[in-house]
Design brief:
It contains 29 helices and 18 strands. It is α+β, with helices and mostly antiparallel strands. Helix 8 packs antiparallel against helix 9 and helix 10 packs parallel to helix 25.
């Protein structure tokens, strides 16, 4: 007996020692992690990702990490065990019953899985689910190869092939194909490129009618199939959380949503964000309901996939913390330690998502800091850290130090319910005001002047918020809007009682979902971002599940609910059919004045091209277009808006004009910064072109019968070409000294070769004229910001027209952006006013090409200088024969002059950090 006690004590001491050792190891790792975070914070502050005043968050952030670590180590085992879902027991019973009832089918491999699943779900539910999935798939496949959206050429030509090359060559750093990062949809679409592009069999895509459409179809097909599979997974999560009838209704709201169907057809980060993000959301609630930890891993896994789709998924970290807090506040039976145990599992979720992100993004194998840069330190969360970090600090402080007194006060006084009541009442009033404004044709807030006309940065934050709200109201189906409106009305009158006060899961989903939507739209407005249909795609499944909760809460009888289910499926299918084939441009019956919620965005170009191709001899036609989506399906000669002035090319006979192109042109004319908006020609040409948007078209495609959302073919008036005088008669002498870089000893005179991060231009012997040029070189395969050659200051006149031109030669140009030449305007104190970019030089290897732009100086402009660089790209660029000339007879510009206040004063003509040249990059 004595020996037994001795052995027991011996093993106990060993366990204690081992435990203490693990604690020491954990604390050591925590210390290293804190030091790493300090380094990362300081590094990113130095890189100007954070504002300088936000450095005060460093101390709070480190304390927040420390408190979270203490809480993590102080929680033993997290939530123990967990109840077994009753559905699992029933499923095992049904498996046994199926084997007895259908012994023959049960022996057929493959068939038995399908039949057994139908048997277990029941013929009613399995039949409805298959109908919904098949209908959704049919809509997704419709028109799949018959459009080219605005951003997709970058994925089709550059990013997806780059990913394939990186995987085949083992160059892992090149797998970072985009800052979104967009890896999941790109990887899914790699199958079609693996044969045709990467093998080198097709260096450039053939634009053969039919063949190109087929390529697009199979390129997009894997993304469609992936989302269909995700719909089945989402159904299973919904069924386990609630019941089959709930799952069927919710799936119909999601799978038959026009916006979701439309985004699922496009290879873009948003295409897989909605499905993976919502699956993570549901898996986390399954964990909340069942306490089964496997759902934490499921949630983390799908969140990792969502992060691989688009960095905006990081907002789900905050949503999950919000869900944990709401659970505690709603349920009076829970103790404060419950939050600690939930947070323990939340850390597991975060770790799982980070591991998935790191495993499937090989660029992190080369640069592990990308795990942070592309997730918790990405652009979506960083601006909100001023609120997030103190909020988390307060939460941890309350749990660990105050023992939950703050949360207890919130719970005891029903502050959460009161907050939701006030939010619901305010939302009802705001929706009522918005509807009144719509029906009175916008007397208070003119939507047509705001939405899709200018960038959000040109508007006030309140205008951006209002525009986003209108977009939300008009891009959700009437049935969803009805259910959401009923929730706000009942919540403001009765509180959560109408949802059954003891059904904490449903209340939590609705409350956290509504707060999530509110934070998302308000946060985007504060960051000057519209949340139009595409950019709020992560919210659409949330609208769907809230609508489902409202349906099942209002209809309690089973037979009535079944009838309502059929009606809901038919209505949702009708809404999709109504918007076919332009699903992403869906707007509901509230859009009575034909506002353009989402511009043509490349849609309608295929249909117009088919009509043009039926005209006599389309191969000999020369057409200029202001937007993508037309050229890939047109048989004749095509010019885009970056290929020059349409009125100076005698061959061009027609213009293809879209409302999206008009939006860009209006912005260009408004801010006198042509190329920053994608129009590399003069203001005179812009004004002339603007008149063509009002002319009667030869052919026209209206998107969803919206007269303001169009793709038009307009014939050029020959007199407009004749009215353009010869450029050489408009120009005086070159104002730049040493424009060909011929003079100098070790460096060209009157030019500064400024370094950037160790990269500096060189004085080279390859030239366009003479014997000298400037060479900008970024070696390797990783994007960088180059150094830049910069001219001396030139005294300039305000409100005066100048022409800037330069010759450039490229070799192996790649990466995110291509080389550009830029002209900068300074005021009398040499403070920066603005810069204008010449048309960018092309990718790959190109011989000497001249780029020209006309500008009108600002009313405060006193000095000009010219510089060139590569902003986040790679390869070699030669610059030569730069000209800055005064125009003698400028055409008057009727639009008002806009004065901009510079962000950073410039005392000397030193290196300027320009805006990226990738003007069509998505958020």
């Amino acid at each position: 007996m004595k020996d037994t006690a001795y052995q027991y004590g011996k093993y106990t001491n060993r366990i204690k020692s081992l435990f203490n050792t693990r604690v020491k190891i954990a604390l050591t790792i925590t210390g290293i992690f804190i030091l790493l975070m300090v380094f990362l914070y300081n590094y990113f502050f130095d890189q100007m990702i954070f504002g300088p005043n936000e450095k005060n968050l460093l101390i709070i952030g480190v304390l927040c990490i420390f408190f979270g670590t203490v809480q993590f180590l102080g929680t033993v085992g997290g939530l123990q065990g967990g109840s077994v879902i009753q559905n699992d027991i029933q499923e095992k019973h049904l498996n046994n019953t199926f084997q007895q009832a259908f012994p023959t089918i049960n022996r057929i491999w493959g068939v038995k899985w399908v039949v057994r699943w139908i048997y277990k779900e029941g013929w009613w539910y399995s039949g409805l689910l298959l109908i919904i999935i098949a209908t959704s798939l049919g809509f997704m496949l419709n028109h799949l190869g018959q459009f080219m959206s605005v951003d997709e050429p970058k994925w089709y030509i550059i990013r997806v092939p780059q990913l394939g090359y990186a995987l085949l060559s083992g160059n892992w750093s090149l797998t970072l194909i985009n800052d979104k990062p967009g890896l999941l949809p790109a990887a899914l679409s790699l199958g079609e490129f693996a044969i045709n592009y990467i093998s080198g069999f097709l260096i450039q895509r053939p634009l053969i009618q039919g063949s190109f459409e087929q390529n697009l179809f199979f390129w997009r097909l894997p993304v469609v199939i992936f989302n269909i599979i995700m719909l089945i997974i989402i159904y299973s999560f919904l069924r386990d959380m609630f019941n089959k009838n709930f799952a069927i209704i919710c799936i119909s709201f999601i799978a038959l949503n026009p916006i979701i169907i439309g985004i699922s057809q496009i290879v873009s980060p948003d295409a897989t964000l909605w499905s993976t993000g919502f699956a993570s959301f549901l898996a986390f609630f399954l964990y909340i309901k069942t306490n089964i930890r496997k759902y934490i891993f499921f949630s983390g896994f799908f969140l990792g996939l969502a992060l691989l789709s688009k960095y905006v998924a990081t907002i789900l970290y905050l949503v999950f913390i919000l869900v944990i807090v709401i659970e505690y506040v709603l349920d009076n039976s829970l103790k404060i330690g419950h939050i600690s145990r939930r947070m323990y599992d939340f850390y597991i979720l975060v770790g799982t998502s980070m591991v998935v992100f790191a495993i499937f993004l090989p660029a992190t194998w080369v640069d592990p800091t990308l795990i942070f840069k592309k997730t918790v330190l990405s652009g979506i969360l960083v601006p909100a850290y001023v609120i997030i970090i103190p909020g988390l600090f307060l939460l941890f402080f309350d749990i660990l130090v105050l023992k939950g007194r703050i949360l207890h006060f919130i719970r005891q006084n029903n502050l959460l319910v009161h907050f939701m009541n006030v939010l619901s009442l305010a939302t009802i009033l705001f929706i009522g005001f918005s509807l009144l404004n719509i029906f009175l044709k916008y007397p208070f807030f003119h939507l047509n002047d705001k939405i899709c006309c200018f960038n959000a940065a040109d508007l006030s934050k309140m205008d951006v918020f209002n525009t986003s709200v209108y977009a939300t109201l008009m891009t959700n189906t009437p049935l969803i809007l009805l259910m959401i409106s009923i929730f706000f009305i009942l919540q403001s009158i009765r509180g959560p009682n109408f949802l059954k006060s003891n059904d904490f899961i449903k209340i939590n989903i609705v409350y956290s979902g509504i707060i999530f939507i509110f934070i998302y739209i308000v946060g985007a407005a504060l960051g000057n971002h519209f949340t139009t249909a595409r950019y709020e795609i992560i919210l659409h499944p949330i609208f769907g599940i809230i609508s489902t909760i409202m349906v099942v809460s209002l209809i309690r009888k089973e037979d009535v609910l079944r009838l309502a289910t059929i009606l809901i499926i038919l209505l949702n299918a009708f809404f999709v059919f109504q918007s076919s084939p332009f699903y992403l441009q869906y707007d509901n019956e509230l859009n009575i004045h034909d506002a353009v919620i989402t511009d043509a965005w490349g849609f309608g170009g295929y249909e117009l091209a088919q009509q043009v191709n039926e005209l006599p001899e389309p191969q000999s036609m020369h057409i200029w277009a202001d937007r993508e989506g037309f050229k890939d399906f047109f048989k004749g000669n095509y010019y885009n808006r970056n290929s020059g002035d349409p009125f100076e090319n005698a061959d061009i006979q027609y213009l293809v004009l879209t409302n999206g192109g008009k939006k860009i042109l209006l912005k260009s004319l408004r801010i006198y910064s042509n190329n920053s908006s994608g129009f590399p020609y003069s203001i005179e040409t812009g004004n002339r072109l603007l008149k063509y948007y009002e002319r009667t078209p030869v052919l026209e495609i209206k998107i969803n019968n919206n007269s303001n959302n169009y793709v038009r073919l307009v014939k050029i008036d020959e007199t407009d070409k004749i009215l353009i005088p010869d450029r050489t008669m408009l120009l005086k002498n070159n104002l730049l000294v040493n424009p060909g870089f011929e003079s100098g000893t070790t460096n060209p005179l009157n030019w500064t070769l400024a370094a950037q991060g160790g990269n500096k231009p060189i004085w080279d012997s390859i030239s366009h004229n003479g014997s000298r040029s400037i060479r900008i070189s970024i070696p390797g395969t990783t994007d960088m910001i180059s150094g830049q050659p910069q001219s001396d200051l030139i005294i300039a006149q305000p409100l005066t027209f100048y022409q800037v031109s330069a010759w450039g030669k490229t070799q192996n140009i790649g990466g995110t952006n291509t080389p550009a030449v830029r002209v900068v305007e300074l005021d009398i104190n040499r403070n920066w006013i603005r810069q204008t970019n010449l048309p960018v030089f092309g990718r790959g290897t190109n011989n000497w090409t001249q780029k020209i732009i006309d500008i009108q100086t600002d009313q405060n402009t006193k000095y000009l200088y010219v510089y060139a660089n590569i902003w986040q790209g790679l390869g070699d660029f030669w610059l030569d024969d730069v000209e800055l000339s005064l125009k003698v007879t400028p055409t008057p510009m009727p639009t008002p002059v806009i004065t901009y206040t510079p962000l950073t004063p410039i005392q000397e003509p030193v290196a300027i950090t320009p805006a990226p040249t990738d003007v069509n990059a998505t958020p």
